[in-house]
Design goal:
Strand order of the largest sheet: 4-3-5-6-7-8-9-14-13
Radius of gyration: 22 Å
CATH class of the largest domain: Alpha Beta
Shape: globular
CATH topology of the largest domain: Rossmann fold
Number of helices: 12
Number of domains: 2
Bound molecules: adenosine-5'-diphosphate, zinc ion
Largest sheet: 9 strands, mixed
Strand content: 15-25%
Number of strands: 21
Helix content: 25-40%
Structural class: alpha/beta
Length: about 425
């Protein structure tokens, strides 16, 4: 099913014409309205008239999270505040938060993107959608809410947390679709299976829209099995809009990016040169329709690759492969690059593990230590107490073969690792303290 087949299946030459037209407009709009873009372009020696089509995009300077921080809170807004109808802000755990401002038109484009995603997951106005992303400054809650409302679904704005109540409403209302982070979905699934009050057979879930953090294919399999659903990826970021910049289709083989609104490029994060199609690098976005806070060549720090091969579903929008992580999530342990997603993928290969893990890195005598705590499913833990050695050995061996270094694996009791109702925290790096 498609929400907007005309746009989603637009022949690529036509799509490229539309992108060109929109890029020319947005470049002139930002140059005329935002001092930041004006100065950046002048400094780079580019004039709006040099941008004649999408192929000229590489002439434009990049923009980073630091730029948004430097111009905090509204210095990169292109529309007057009287036209801004909503603010959101990123978490700001690593510095000042990024504030995003949306005009009415921006909210419409955003909910259009989410509606395309949810429709691809098979969600219609007949569905009851539980939004368990946090509501508030985080874009997850209201973003999913507006997209589901646009389709006409019955929306349950549960927000995050209060898991027992989430499960009760899910059962009693006959919720058919769940939107939340994959880590919270796993927590809900575990709670459902552990609880004496709820059974999977009482639930009516059929689809899950999971995003806001990286998750592996193995995690998908786990969520699909434990919740009896099809689990789909939804991608987005506050700086560009929010969730729904792209989403998977029924093929579950890559995340279609809604390229008529959000133009993606992949660059080498070191040289900043655009990479050939299919190569993995840093994802960069230019918003083609945003009015409130447009971004031009915004460096997301997300590492992935793009697949321009036609998709079986008929949509022509490019597909993004699963995000490996952010450049700033990458750990360098004993000189080797390690992404938490690689660890997650290995853990989920073992049926005894429940998917919860914590990586702790430290430096002792000038050598990095690499500890991995993993939880087991409660039913396995009880049976295995005192006999974890062969499992630990097997996991250590798999990690060594996937990432090339040895890891000190420990089994911990179920629920020993702190759960999050939002984005999961998988790493403690004591070397930075
Ligand atoms: P913050 O920067 O505070 O985390 P956001 O909520 O805007 O704020 O986070 C956006 C980021 O979340 C993306 O840049 C990406 O790293 C991650 N993300 C969002 N959706 C996905 C997804 N489906 N898969 C992997 N990572 C995702
Ligand atoms: Zn597709």
């Amino acid at each position: 099913m498609m929400w907007n087949p005309e746009m989603e299946c637009m022949p690529r030459p036509e799509l490229e014409r539309l992108q060109s037209e929109r890029l020319v407009k947005i470049v002139k709009y930002t140059y005329d309205n935002v001092k930041f873009y004006h100065d950046r372009m002048d400094f780079a020696g580019v004039k709006p008239s040099d941008i004649k089509g999408i192929e000229d995009i590489s002439k434009l300077p990049f923009m980073s999270k630091q730029d948004l921080r430097d111009y905090y809170p509204t210095g990169t807004f292109a529309a007057p505040l009287s036209e801004i109808v909503r603010f959101h802000a990123s978490s700001g755990t690593t510095g000042k938060p990024i504030v995003a401002g949306y005009t009415q038109h921006d909210l419409e484009c955003w909910s259009e993107g989410v509606a395309r995603c949810l429709t691809a997951y098979g969600i219609t106005k007949e569905d009851i959608v539980q939004v368990a992303y946090g509501y508030g400054l985080f874009t997850g809650g209201l973003g999913a809410h507006d997209g589901a409302t646009r389709i006409g679904c019955s929306v349950l704005p549960a927000s995050s947390g209060n898991t027992a109540k989430q499960l009760m409403l899910m059962r009693d209302l006959g919720v058919t679709a769940l939107c939340c982070t994959p880590s919270y979905a796993l927590f809900l699934a575990e709670s459902l299976h552990k609880s004496e009050d709820f059974k999977l057979s009482d639930m009516h879930l059929k689809a899950g829209a999971f995003g806001a953090e990286p998750w592996s294919e193995n995690m998908r399999a786990e969520l699909e099995e434990k919740l009896g659903i099809k689990a789909y990826d939804i991608y987005g970021l506050t700086e560009v809009s929010g969730p729904g910049v792209g989403g998977e289709c029924e093929c579950q083989d890559g995340t279609h990016i809604w390229e008529d609104m959000f133009f993606p490029e992949i660059i080498d994060p070191q040289t900043l040169k655009p990479l050939p199609h299919g190569d993995q690098g840093e994802l960069v976005f230019t918003t083609l329709t945003k009015e409130g806070m447009p971004v031009i060549r915004y460096r997301t720090r997300d590492l992935t690759s793009l697949n321009y091969a036609p998709c079986k579903c008929g949509r022509t929008a490019v597909r993004m492969n699963k995000i490996m992580g952010r450049t700033d999530d990458m750990l360098i342990i004993r000189g080797v690059n390690v992404f938490p997603t690689q660890i997650e993928s290995v853990i989920m290969e073992f049926a005894e593990c429940n998917g919860q893990y914590l990586i702790t890195v430290d430096r002792v005598d000038n050598t990095d230590t690499f500890r991995l705590d993993i939880e087991l499913r409660s039913e396995c833990y009880g049976d295995m107490v005192g006999q974890f050695q062969s499992l630990i050995k097997a996991i250590t061996g798999r990690i060594s073969s996937v990432i090339g270094i040895k890891c000190d694996v420990h089994v911990v009791e179920p629920n020993a690792i702190e759960r999050s109702a939002g984005k999961a925290k998988h790493v403690v790096d004591l070397r930075k303290i």
